[in-house]
Design a protein that fits this description.
By secondary structure, the protein is an all-alpha fold. The chain is built from 20 helices and 2 strands. It has a two-stranded antiparallel ribbon. Strand 1 and strand 2 form a beta hairpin. The longest helix is centred in the C-terminal third of the chain and has 27 residues. It is globular, with a radius of gyration of 23 Å.
Length: 425
């Protein structure tokens, strides 16, 4: 570690101390969304950091929020230690412990420990940081996340480049277009569903982030975004209709269809240009099954997934060990996080992971934005993801767990009676 990096870290610590001094003196409430925004869009901060300092920027994820979190954790009357009593946190802990234990029977050359460390730094630590700050200050603003997403999308559109590695796909220098698409579509979902975001922020951010996502020509994240939003949208509409809060459901559906039809008619004068753009983009295979099955990218992933399935067949119960179907032991990742988990951790690991994920999804059932993001981020990981670098679903799982009302966490007969009415409100 050179002297410049040491000085930068000292400066970060000093700034953190100053912020914490202001917090304690003015009794300010720290918004936990800042940690989530910093983590989710860290690719931007990492890129800017590397313009000044070469090397790995992940230390910033641990260092920047550390001191404010410590103050929240050890301050008088803090409820921040509640994360140690959260059943969902312990379920995810069991997943990590089992994955770590699988190194015992994993191949010697495995890089599984690196995968776990990456996921731990990107999701678990920020997730616990967020949980601690929220339980202390009870503040989480979706507007903050929307503004972080706006900064990321704007930087992607202005600083992005079309490289030889990813022809025709806009990407931040040194980054990956799929990751850029995931982050921008994360922003769009936050703006579509997040509460109390001003309209003058919501609409421009959706436009900028949407343009950023399309410019990457990443098919998997866009498909996951569409499916997740449609599923939760349908569930929310049905629940409101069943509760009598949406009396004219047929009218809304007809209005939605009318908007689609009007959009089609509005696009007819530009049909030739649109057709030319689609045919010249990576989206063309979505409209041609033969082209999709002949796509080199698709063929390569199917081969990797067949190898992962073969590994699972050889070690069905406990798996082949973390890292056994990913580099350097394989040419590439299977590009399906569940297939990667079951082949490396077996039925035992897959069961633990499923219980933790479903518990988190249930915990976030009162917040449609959280449910959409949990489904959307997992969907991206199913179509083009891996266990280490697809961290957003795990971070959102911690957000879902922290947002559970305190009464519901404590349980009790009275809370059980009030659970459904509280959800319906």
């Amino acid at each position: 570690m050179n002297i410049t990096l040491i000085l930068i870290l000292v400066l970060v610590v000093c700034i953190g101390l100053f912020i914490c001094l202001c917090i304690t003196r003015e009794n300010l409430r720290v918004d936990a969304a800042y940690v989530v925004g910093f983590c989710v869009y860290f690719d931007l901060f990492g890129y800017l950091y590397k313009q000044v300092m070469p090397g790995n920027a992940l230390v910033l994820l641990l260092a920047v929020p550390f001191i404010p979190v410590c103050i929240a954790l050890f301050s008088k009357g803090s409820k921040s230690w509640d994360f140690l009593r959260d059943q969902g946190v312990w379920l995810w802990g069991l997943v990590f412990l089992y994955a770590l234990g699988s190194l015992i029977w994993a191949p010697y050359e495995t890089a599984g420990l690196n995968k776990l460390l990456i996921l731990f730094i990107h999701a678990v630590v920020p997730g616990i940081y967020t949980y601690i700050l929220y339980k202390k200050y009870n503040k989480f603003s979706w507007t903050v996340l929307a503004l972080f997403g706006f900064a990321f999308a704007a930087a992607h559109l202005t600083l992005g480049e079309y490289s030889q590695e990813y022809p025709g796909r806009l990407v931040l220098p040194g980054g990956n277009p799929i990751y850029n698409a995931r982050m921008s579509l994360f922003t769009v979902t936050v703006c579509l569903w997040g509460r109390n975001i001003p309209l003058w922020i919501r609409i421009p951010v959706i436009a900028i982030a949407g343009a950023s996502a399309i410019a990457t020509e990443s098919r998997g994240p866009i498909a996951a975004f569409a499916v997740a939003n449609l599923i939760i949208g349908a569930v929310v509409l049905f629940n409101k209709y069943k509760q009598g809060k949406l009396r004219n459901l047929k009218g809304i559906v007809l209005a939605f269809l009318a908007v689609i039809v009007l959009g089609i008619f509005a696009g007819l004068p530009y049909s030739a240009e649109l057709k030319q753009w689609v045919e010249g983009s990576r989206f063309s295979v979505l409209f041609d099954r033969q082209a999709l099955m002949g796509d080199d990218n698709m063929i390569g992933r199917l081969v990797l997934q067949e190898k992962a399935i073969a590994t699972w067949n050889e070690h069905p119960f406990i798996g082949a060990g973390i890292g056994s179907v990913t580099p350097p032991l394989a040419h590439d990742f299977p590009h399906n996080v569940l297939l990667e988990i079951v082949s490396e951790l077996g039925v035992v690991g897959m069961t633990l992971w499923t219980l933790a994920y479903l518990y988190s999804l249930w915990a976030g059932r009162q917040f449609p934005v959280v449910m959409v993001l949990l489904l959307q981020t997992l969907g991206s990981a199913l179509m083009s993801g891996d266990f280490g670098y697809n961290f957003e679903y795990l971070l959102m799982a911690f957000v879902a767990l922290m947002l559970v009302p305190e009464k519901e966490q404590k349980g009790g007969e009275e809370d059980a009676k009030n659970l459904v009415p509280h959800y319906r409100a």
